[in-house]
Design goal:
Length: 439
């Protein structure tokens, strides 16, 4: 759960919409429960009054209409405000993710496939929208409404109100805990299967020509089929458990209604003429209570996927850049363009030196061809020049400046390194050029 803390901290950028959305959610759920509770009492009291007794039905009927309209209005504005808050948080999260990714060199990003990187930036970030809408807001709303309805009903009968509130609080603890544990079993697999399937699908689309040429299309289709089957199996498990959570809540709600009907029929409601109508009031309050608990089972079943998505996004934004650019330097035009002295370089997590004691001086205004066999270090030298990597030892100067940032902004890195002969290169240029050999 600690993985979610950095994303919860983003809530500070949308405090007012989040709080307003929570208040509207509480008012909407409270109006819905109050509507059913008051309706139960109103119907029972009207039946008891019959035709021969004076009964003021204007106030109760006005309450029912007001609560019905209030519930509709609250639900409408709740959807607008909560989704607006969620979009604000997601936009801030996407900006934060890109702020972390932009300084990373291609050497760091090359650890991930392009499709996997895209999946983390789009699908995994979108999965995090459930954190507020489906998890935190419904849970805190349930806590507040349970406390409020317990306090409200205690003015009529304290034991029944405390019993109802205690039963709902126990369910509020047990059901999210149980379905959180169940969702952990396949939540991470679901996220990983989705990412794997999209990666394989993009590879299938991009490599169509090669797959058809080498008759390897069926093999990749089989791999996609296996991944899709695993993904669908986990989705089926999630759907079954979601249905089970609904059935379990309905079953427990039925037990609650039966128990409330039993205890309310034996409770003491005083000597009021319509005291027996309170039996219907408490029974309908128990019936309305399922709205509090119903969404929590499926929501906490989904939390495993939210945590897995958060871990995948965190893995990206916690990457450290191999090369850091600090300060601004002005480029000097009348000095040697590139100068390398005793340059040693090896790729990360590799001991073999790709470049060893390389010394190089390149003047401005000249065209340079660097020749060498495959693996001699031509591309590695280019990686150092554009600062995708930093050298292990030695000095590399760009216009007498070490680690010159302006160079990377102004010079594009086309592949100017040929493993060819001078005569073939002369066909492409009539200018003077200098040849350096690597390896």
């Amino acid at each position: 759960m600690h993985t979610l803390l950095p994303f919860i901290r983003l809530f500070k950028f949308a405090k007012f919409p989040l709080i307003l959305g929570l208040v509207l959610m509480i008012l909407g759920l409270g109006s819905s429960m109050s509507l059913l509770t008051v309706s139960g009492w109103f119907l029972a009291a009207t039946a008891i009054a019959g035709l021969g007794t004076l009964f003021n039905f204007f106030y109760p009927s006005a309450s029912v209409r007001g609560l019905a309209i209030g519930r509709t209005v609250m639900r409408y504005f709740e959807k607008i405000v909560t989704h607006d808050a969620t979009f604000r948080i997601l936009s801030k999260l996407r900006v934060q993710v890109f702020e972390k990714i932009i300084p990373l060199s291609p050497a760091v990003l090359n650890r991930y496939r392009n499709s996997d990187l895209l999946n983390r930036l789009v699908s995994d970030v979108d999965t995090l929208d459930s954190l507020y809408l489906r998890l935190l807001a419904p849970f805190f709303t349930a806590v507040f409404v349970i406390i409020a309805i317990t306090i409200g009903l205690s003015f009529i009968n304290i034991p029944l109100a405390l019993g109802l509130g205690l039963f709902l609080l126990i369910l509020l603890i047990i059901i999210p805990t149980v379905f959180y544990r169940l969702g952990q079993q396949f939540g991470e697999r679901l996220i990983q299967a989705r990412a794997t399937y999209r990666t394989q699908f993009l590879e299938f689309i991009q490599a169509q020509a090669e797959l058809l040429l080498f008759n390897a299309e069926d093999r990749l289709k089989e791999k996609m089929s296996v991944t899709e089957k695993t993904w669908q199996e986990d989705q089926a498990k999630e759907a079954k458990l979601s249905g089970f959570s609904t059935a379990l809540v309905l079953f427990l709600n039925g037990l609650l209604i039966s128990g409330m009907l039993w205890f309310a029929s034996n409770a003491n409601f005083g000597t009021d003429e319509y005291r027996t109508a309170y039996i219907a009031l408490f029974t309908f309050a128990a019936l309305a209570a399922f709205e509090i608990i119903m969404p929590l089972g499926a929501a906490f079943l989904h939390i495993g996927q939210v945590i897995a998505a958060a871990e995948r996004v965190t893995e990206i934004i916690e990457q450290k850049p191999l090369v850091e650019f600090n300060g601004n330097e002005e480029f000097e035009t009348k000095v040697r363009l590139i100068s390398a002295k005793n340059l040693n370089f090896s790729y990360p997590e590799q001991e073999t030196l790709v470049l060893k004691n390389l010394t190089l001086d390149l003047e401005q205004g000249k065209k340079i061809a660097i020749l060498g066999k495959t693996g001699s270090g031509k591309s590695s030298l280019l990686q150092l020049l554009v600062r995708n990597y930093d050298a292990n030892q030695g000095e590399l100067f760009i216009g007498r400046k070490t680690h010159f940032r302006l160079f990377r902004r102004n010079i594009t890195p086309p592949n100017l390194f040929f493993n060819s002969t001078c005569s073939r290169i002369q066909r492409y240029t009539s200018s003077k050029f200098t040849i350096c050999k690597c390896g």
